[in-house]
């Protein structure tokens, strides 16, 4: 058993976040953290799934050791992404941490029922993000033993759970949360 820091020279984080400002704050916080970390940003859950499934132009994108996921995403919500990822026998091994503005008890409960690994309310400002990222790094990279996650050769060739569509043909519809 090993931690992410023990087995990865540079841990890989997939950040699924549609807010440009929040994504920049997370990247800056990781740059100031103890462990050099590569952060890949997906602006939608669909792009996140394509990265994980090695589809399209994402064949050579680093496979993540951990995923930071916003709930309030356009088209496919973070909760729907979580359901798809945790339903996949390979992807479910990747720790997924919700990082959201939501303080809803219903969101917390729904994500834990869907096997999320953690739930963090987004902080305010760079100092707050640095504290959250240091804490995540301390626990998920240095303390907690996790299974090694890497893209299996068969992942892009396997049949995946279908991406939900709305009756109007749009992916997942608009997220109803504000």
From TrEMBL:
Domain Response regulatory: start-end pairs: 12-137
PTM annotation (4-aspartylphosphate): residues: 70
Region (Disordered): 151-178
Residues spanning the membrane: none
Keywords from the UniProt entry: Phosphoprotein
Coiled coil: none
Pfam families recorded: Response_reg
Source superkingdom: Bacteria
One GO BP annotation of this record: phosphorelay signal transduction system
Claim: Phosphoprotein is one of the keywords in the record: yes
SUPFAM superfamilies on file: CheY-like
Keyword Phosphoprotein: yes
InterPro entries listed in its UniProt record: CheY-like_superfamily, Sig_transdc_resp-reg_receiver, TCS_response_regulator
Xref: PANTHER family: RESPONSE REGULATOR RCP1, RESPONSE REGULATOR RCP1-RELATED
Name of protein: Response regulatory domain-containing protein
């Amino acid at each position: 058993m090993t931690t992410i820091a023990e087995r990865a020279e540079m841990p890989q984080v997939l950040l699924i976040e549609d807010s440009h400002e929040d994504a920049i704050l997370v990247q800056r916080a990781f740059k100031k953290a103890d462990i050099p970390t590569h952060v890949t940003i997906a602006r939608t859950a669909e792009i996140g799934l394509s990265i994980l499934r090695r589809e399209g132009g994402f064949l050579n994108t680093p496979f993540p050791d951990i995923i930071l996921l916003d709930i309030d995403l356009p088209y496919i919500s973070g909760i729907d992404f979580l359901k798809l990822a945790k339903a996949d026998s390979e992807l479910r091994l990747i720790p997924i941490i919700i990082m959201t503005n939501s303080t809803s008890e219903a969101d917390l409960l729904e994500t834990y029922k869907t096997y999320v690994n953690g739930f963090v309310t987004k902080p305010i400002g760079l100092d707050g993000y640095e504290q959250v990222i240091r804490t995540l790094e301390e626990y998920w990279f240095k303390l907690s033993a996790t299974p090694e996650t890497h893209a299996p050769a068969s992942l892009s060739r396997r049949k995946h759970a279908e991406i939900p569509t709305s009756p109007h043909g749009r992916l997942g519809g608009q997220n109803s949360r504000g």
